[in-house]
Amino acid sequence: MPVIVFHGSADDRVSLVNADQTIAQWSKTNACLAAEHSESGFTLTEKVDGAEVPRGHPYRRHVYLESDGHLLMEKWIVEGLGHAWSGSPDSSKYGDPKGPNASAEIWRFFCQAGSNRTAALSSSEPSHRESGERTK
Fold this sequence. Notes:
Layout: E1 3-8, H1 17-36, E2 44-52, E3 58-66, E4 71-78, E5 85-86, E6 95-96, H2 102-113, H3 117-122
Parallel strand pairs: 1-4, 5-6
Antiparallel strand pairs: 2-3, 3-4
């Protein structure tokens, strides 16, 4: 399953360790998913790069690739970002325009990662709800 995480280093409400734990949990989930479908040798390679938004926050991007080179997960750590949406068009209590544009990056990520092998495995299970079935 493709996963992308954005987290601000100055977030005073959610600990930065949550970003690491999210990636760790989904790494294990993706490994289990691959094993369940007889995919041997599930491995991830991590690449780290970074930059700075012009007149804004620097960031580190961790990219996790499957053994075949397909994108599976990303973790963005935005230095100086608090508990706010990174790259918000307006500055507000929960929006910071000085960070990378999270909306655009999330769109790019799912367009790129949506065609990977592990994502295809996760959608191969039949739905447990029949058409017309209602939930209560």
